[in-house]
Each structure stands twice: as C-alpha cells, then as structure tokens.
Amino acid sequence: MFVLKNVKYKDILNIEELHIPARKITVITGKSGTGKTTLLKMLNKLISPDSGEILFKGTPLKEIDSVELRRKVVMLPQFPVVFPGNVKENLLIGLKFSGKDIPHDEELRNILRFVILEKDLNDDPEKFSGGEKQRLALARVLLMDPEVLLLDEPTSSLDEKTGIEIIKKVSNFAKNREKTLVIVTHNPELRKFADVLIELKNGRVL
Amino acid sequence: MGPVDIGLIQLLSAYIFVVILMFILRIRRIPREKEVLVASIRMTFQLVLAGFVLSYILDHPSPLYTVLAVLVMEIFAIYNVYKRARLSLPSKVKKRLEFFIAISVSTGTLLSLVYFLYVVVRISPWFDPRYVIPLAGMIIGNSMTGVSLGVKTLSESITIQKDIVEAALMLGARPKDAVRMFSDRAFDSAILPTLNSMIGMGIVFLPGMMTGQILSGASPITAIKYQIAIMLGILGGVTISVSVFLYLGYKAFFNREDQLIV
User: Fold this and answer.
1) Could you read off the pLDDT of A38-48 as tens digits, one per residue?
2) CA-CA distance, B246 to B183, in Å (whole number)?
C-alpha cells in the first residue's frame, strides 16, 4: 500500500526503506519521540518529507491531491478533537467534508455501540471524558469507511481492558472489510494484533 | 448661518481636559502620561496638517489631488491593519497575509466608495474633493477597523486551535472547510462594531459627519439623509473588505499541498 524510500524529516525521521502492506494490520511501536506520529502524518500527507519518496499504490504522494488522499487514508489523532455540535454532528462531520451520503440514525447508534460508547446522539461531547472523546473520534473515522485507517495511540485515554476490546473489534472490522490498518502505539499489548510489526527507534526502523 | 468660529485662546482652553486626564493618571499612578501627551500632540499636529492640505485641495480641485488623497488614505489604512494585527506568524504566512489584507482593504473600500459617490450621491465633477475625501475617509477608516478585527480573530483562532484544523484535514476536509468556523467567527467579530454603532446612532450619540453638517448650517434632515447613506456605505465597505479578506486570507496558512504551515 505504502512504500517509503530514503525518507528524511528534520531530525525526527530517517527511514531507508519501509513497506506497509495493503489489507493487513501494521502496528508501529517505539518510545515517545521516536517519530511514530510524524510517520503517520506523512502517510496522511499532513506533512511532507524533506527528502526521499513515499509511494501510495505505486504513485508518488507528491502527485496525488492531498485532500483526495486524506479521504482514502483517514487519520485519527492521538488527542481526540471534538468539533462544535452534538454527538450526531461530530459523527457526521467527516462524511460531510467529503460530500458522502449521510447514514440513518440507527447506523450511527450502531457505530457508537461498536466503540462501546453508550451515549445519545443529542449529547454534548464537550462534557465527555478523555476516553469517551477518543471513542467518539474513533467512531467518526470508522463511519467514513476509508481504504486505510491510521490510528495514532487509539487506546491512550482508555483503560487497558476497554482498549484491548475495542482494538480487537477494529481489527476484525478491518479484516472483514479488507481495510489497511496502521496502528501507532507504545502499548506492548497491541502487538498481538499485528500482521506486520515495525519498531522505531530514534526515527529509524529497527 | 455659518458655524461659530473658535478663537485660538478658546481652542487652547479645550486642552484643559488633557490636563485633567494627566492629573488623574498621576494621582492613580498609572504610567500613561507619555502616551496621552503623544496622542494629544499627534492629534493636533495631524489635524492642523490635514486642515492645510484639505484647504489647498478644496481651493484647487483637481482629479490628481483627489486620487492622491484617496491613495494615501488606502496606504495608511493597510499599513495600520498590519500594525494592529501584530502578527507573530512565520514570515511566509505573514507576507501572504499582508498581500491579502492589501487586496481586501483596497477592493472593498473602492467598490463601496464608487457605488456611494456615483450611484447614491451622484457627485459632479467625479473628483469633487469636498465629497470624495471625507466620505473616502469614513469608509476606509471603518473598513480598516473591520479587517483588523477579522485578521486578528482568524489568525489567532487558527494558531491557537491548530489541532482542530489538523483534525479536520485528517478527515479529508478542504482547507476552506477546515477553517470555516473560524472564518465565520472572524466575520462576526469584524462587522460587530459597525452594527453596534448603527444600533446606537441618533439616540446614544450623534455621529461626527451629521454633527459637522448641522454645525455648518445644513438642515438636520439633509444631515440625517447623508448620515444614513454613509452608514450604509460604511457597512458595504466593511462587508466587502472583510468578505474578500476571509475568502483569501485562510489560504495564507496553507501550502500548495493543503498542509497547515503554522
């Protein structure tokens, strides 16, 4: 799906070669500050490398329209963001950005149940805890049904049991629907979900 | 009936209010005396200078002088927006933002001014400095305030709430959509002072142009008609300038790859 060749970004990343396969679960681990988030942002084209090349399905990222790419390769940030509005508006915002069809409320309730978030569609997410906001943000990206899901520390605000349960469900979701899933984490428990495990240290692949 | 002329001694006696303010500042130990003094001197000097320049232009009406006066006002207004915005942004963003500010202030004020002078008031000759200069001053001055507020709100919102803009981009939003709520907020804060002054007008205060016309002997009804028209002209100038700025301004914060660069 993605191929990185001689990618350098400031003093943060220095990757000679890296392959991220399609329709597999890739888990990227490493301590804080090793460039994991920077790598995900590059795959989402939120930043570009200073040198080197990133290919998406064989095409250089430079040649792909950023917005079109981001609609196929959606990223969940580490610190979940709540947009103005209620739960329903927060769930739908990604679909609205890309002009996709708006699903029925029942589908929205299903996705909330999927991420173990027992909230009403009219609730105000500003009042949610960090973990609840994280699950809402996850539900938002799952609803977009993209080709590639980039999850940055998706369990950082969740307790261990809930975190594992949700990642298990998301992994099954990705496998059943043949999605490419990339999870960045420093939680060693999530390694077991990996088809491909990548470890970063000081911006380099070990 | 012309206005009562103010003698030099009478004019000087009005400076008693500056002395009172300085006295209060000293008692309260607020270190603003220097600013008050500078503001009073600058106000006096600038108005005396403007008085002489305007007298000359009015006595020697010429298209060149009128156009030059409007140009000077535009340049001053644009420079003032730069100064007021106090942008602490990367130089690339700042330069592009300044370019958009110049475009928006000049197009917004000129469009509104041209409409006001040649459709509403229908002045003749087209360059009559007695109309063009004061009306341009009011439209440009108010648009300057509006755009300053718009620039400040937009750039502060985008830099402080960068995570929201980035999160929207991650979901595939176009930059325009990613900053939409900040643009709306900036537009609101930019037009609010004009709306507030319209609400209070005629009851809370009598605006400067109307007061001036009444003092110089014009009928209050004529003065009111002019004041209503100029307020709408100001509203037009502010609306167009701020709209053009917000249409272009957000682009300064993104590169060609639609990446946020602040």
Assistant:
1) 999 999 999 99
2) 6
- For residue B186, CA distances in Å to A105, B74, B86, B87, B109 come to 33, 22, 16, 15, 19
Average pLDDT on B97-111 reads 96
Report the complex ipTM: 0.94
Q: At what angle do helices A87-97 and A130-143 cross, to 10 degrees?
A: 40
B262/B258 Cα distance (integer angstroms)? 12
The CA distance from A5 to A46, in Å, is: 18
**Contact across the interface for B171 and A93, Cβ inside 8 Å:** yes
| CB-nearest partner of A67 from B164, B258, B260 | B258
Q: What is the pLDDT of residue B25?
A: 94
* pTM reported for the whole predicted model: 0.87
Helix (H, G, I), strand (E, B) or coil at B191: helix
Q: How far is CA B194 from CA B35, B189, B236, in A?
A: 27, 10, 10
What percent of chain B is predicted at pLDDT more than 70? 99
B262 and chain A: CB distance < 8 Å anywhere?
A: no
What are the extents of the domains in chain B? 1-60, 63-253
Write down the domain spans for chain A. Answer: 2-205
**Helix%, strand%, coil% for chain B, nearest 5:** 80, 0, 20
The residue in chain B having the minimum alpha-carbon distance to the alpha carbon of residue A70 is: B172
CATH classification code of A2-205: 3.40.50.300
Amino acid, res. B135: L
pLDDT reading at B144 higher than 60: yes
